[in-house]
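Table S2 (continued). Query chain:
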Amino acid sequence: MDSKNNKIYIIGAGFAGIEIARELKRKEIFGKVIGFIDDDIQKMGSNIDGIPVFGPIKNARKIQSEQPADEAIIAIPGAAGDSLKRIYSILKDTDINTIRLLPGISQIIDGDAHLIQTREVSAEDLLGRDSAVISLKESLSYLRGKRVLITGAGGSIGSELSRQLLSGGAQRLYLLDHGENNLYEIEAELKLLQEEGVGEAATIVPVVGDLQDREFMTFILSRLKADVIFHCAAYKHVPMMEKNPVEAIKNNVFGTRNLVDAAIKNNVSKFVLISTDKAVEPVSVYGASKMIAEEIVLSGNSEKTEMMVVRFGNVLGSSGSIVPLFQKQINKGGPVTITHPQIKRFFMTIPEAASLVLKTGGVGSGGTLYLLDMGEPILIKDLAEQMIKFYGFRPDKDIKLLDIGLRPGEKLEEKLWSSNEKPERTDHPGIIKLNKEPNFGRNLKSLIEQLYDICFFNSDNFIAYRNRKKLRQTIKNYIPQLEVPENEPEY
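Corresponding output:
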């Protein structure tokens, strides 16, 4: 949208489409809306603010041939899964150059739609299932006037939480990350969104810091006086953490412990840990680190601080995930690598996961583990083939698929709960309560003490420092299914 002469169709003549059309009229530099296209018989043939409404959407090719446009904006925030695939497929069959999309319904259902929220359609938009419909403003009412801290705010989930929290009426949004570039980008994006009228007037405060710095965590929480913490920060790439197991424990376990202790000391009212299905019967160090982190949070619940855990599977398009990797492989002409033809994973979109996390934070109770409803697992091979088709190629003809074998720490299939966890439906769609017994009980303290001397230098036990073989064996004593490679080096 960089040309004043752009001709634009808006797909959907509902409140979102009308808002976008009015904004485009005010900002003439982006082009002119020449029509809406909608399936509503009552709207077809009418005019809205002087703009004709054509339809139905299935006739887009004919409509485009009679009155050509350069661009289409899909402004149907409720469209997801099969509906979005249908609309996109129809538009791709025309000679429209650019197809843009408004975000999912969870982000704009209660508020105005804004041009700045639109973006080009990506593969992950078409891979997801139909999302749970969530009233975001209602879900975020518990955060109105509060000070909210997000750790890992520059990451995929942390940044999406931040975007959605703009609509929550929070007094302050504290964005904590140890990576200055990611932090700079999300702060700049949020301020730009605010300038364009998205959300409410929360004060945005970026904080560069490391969870592993225990003294800093205590200090910064005493200064920020946060009411609610969403703890998203973690090292999370399984094969990478298999190569760097001590850092996985140091960051994910001790970083979480530092934050939990600081939150309790400073009377934070609510603490929500973001966890993963890798924590269920883990075979990788990353999975073990998240299992231990879950136990630290759940055992830290107190009268003044409600501690809860929200667990879910993979999110489409997150940094370091398989979707961006497939995209890069397709862009270079393949091959697209599959670790195993039968490997499956649970997936949901980043916006849906973030919305359900925010909802859980409001309706959940302290000392409880929650699971987001992930639906059915997806074959990674099917995912790869869908992505290849999205980019206009034929699987195994234009772009080859290559099986490379499971990587260290990977399972063929993930589970969402273990044998000592019993799922229970809640009154809230998309949120499941897991009733469980502690995995470690009184042994949690002993496990952490043994891991401490491996992660942090102790002159009285210097031989343990950074000993990765000892680290794995120590964890395996408490988590028997953890894999310990025969050729694992000590350092």
